[in-house]
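Course assignment 3, question 2. Fill in each field.
Student: A.L.
Task: Predict the tertiary structure for the chain below.
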Amino acid sequence: MIKAIMSDLIKKQILIGISGGIAAYKTAELVRQLIKKGANVRVCMTPSACEFITPLTLQALSGNPVHTDLLNRNAEAAMGHIELARWADLIMIAPTTANFMAKLAHGHAYDLLSTICLATQAPIHLAPAMNRMMWANIATQENRKVLINREYFVHDPADGEQACGEIGTGRMLEAQELASIIENMFTKKQPLSGYSVLITAGPTREAIDPVRFISNRSSGKMGYAIAKAAKALGAKVTLVSGPVALDAPAGVQRYLVESAKEMHHQAMTLAKTADIFIATAAVSDYSPAKISTQKIKKSTDILSLELHYNPDILFDVSHHYPDLFTVGFAAETENLINHAKQKLQRKKLNMIVANPVGNNKGFDKDTNQLEILWENGHISLPEDNKNKLAKELLLIISKHISKDS
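Answer field:
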């Protein structure tokens, strides 16, 4: 008995582009997964890509001829690059090298794949893969911003060990994740479609003088992962971020702030039009009563600072906007569940997410462990990658939202 395929990719026409990087070996698995989901897949390779993986491999997996030449006599008789540009419902370029990102950002058309990208009206998704230093290079990051502004979907690389032996950001996302991203683009009704999600992320900085400030160890990774996942699940996403070393996720409107007061102002303003508020930011509870206009010189053995309580963003949002579905985060070093329950009740939240910090957990890590609590309910999510946890959390939130509506 043949099992029926249940997928939103059935008969969808997906063009997979491959540029010349070692991560091209992963693309074979991507093609295989898309075929299993019922998609019609065609592959276009740059000349450099053919040095890493053979067209014959991709032809065998896709069941279609692989396109490699811009000036192919047989294809050009029917304007092959235009035909492919019109044929595709979606284009995914995996891997996208730094060189190919530069081509797209500057509108070059040196080969068949870049020419198709200029000629198509289909959404174009990019899965960058390169050495960590190439990814961090200012030229690559500027090209990334240009491409996002032109409505390319850039799916940033992951952290990990690279082919060159170095460890850092630059690994192409795995085939399974890319296949899910593509399928989600065709899902008729995403769990968060029609919802506006407001997220705070990262630390705040409270100035002491022009060169010093009070802050904490938050990297913003959890909040940014939630923003990325919310966008993938169909939401309109706005992110209010403290100072972090992270790029804005593709398609997410980001507001950069420094102090708790600045974050409070932005959150209170933007919450007016939000449906869901998720407060992941590690906001400083206190700030100096006076900020010195000049650098404080070392003059005594003891320096005392008078600190005043900062506005409570989560409390104020939940009380000013009682119809807003409000989710708080509680980073605790002890009595995790009890402290989270108290915060849930005290701040009148719909849900709270507790996570342990300290002892090499939580802050500035790629993994997390979550305890999700609401009135008369509790789910534990064991330690896992923050991107995966973000999606699971949002799916739980979406179920609660649908019950309330």
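Instructor remarks: The CA atoms of residues 138 and 144 lie 10 Å apart. The mean pLDDT is 89.
Grade: pending
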